[in-house]
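Model it.
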Amino acid sequence: MNWKTEFRSIYYDGAPEPEDPVFEPEETAFLVIDVQNVYLDRPDRNVLSGENKRRYDAWTPFHERMHQIVIPRTAELLRLCRANGIECLFARIATQTKDGRERSISQKKPGWNNLLLPKNERVSQLVKELWPLEDEIVVTKTTDSALTGTNLRLILNNLGKKNVICAGIFTDQCVSSTVRSLADESFNVIVVEDCCAAGSDELHRKELEIINMIYCHVMSSKELLSAMKLA
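Modeled.
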């Protein structure tokens, strides 16, 4: 199996294999989505009990994937993209106000998405391993899609970008929403499978199957680097 045949849904069963992509550095951007402190912070398991401990354990595979795979490989992609003249951009969820009154309705609903992340607080910052360089662009959003909630569409057009490589979290939420928006705007989109994560591996793989071939092409970081002739 390789990127041309993996993560296919029933819609693309038997469809022709896609052509090899062409990545001209001046036409390509690398976008890292929402890898923020709030999603990587964890309480001390020893002080938890009952349902809280069960939920903690349910999230352990996500945290292991992030620290062992997603963050290191994303950091390496950033290094290689920077070294080869590929623009690196970042999106994060954060509010302009302390009470978050400008958030979209989906980020005010009770439950998982209802996080208050004022823009200057530590929880809303990108993790230190993936900090932008001084002159790199960071867009701040209160929506799932980095295009819908920011001027990223205009930025990419002004930069002359046609191809957008996406990494980040969560595969089935903000990554997927951003990918769909990019595809609707006729950008060529690549999602780097091992630079993304969802709350569970099942959700991660299923969402990749859903968006692959129609909204993007899904590749591993190794396949991407080979296609970009950086490996």
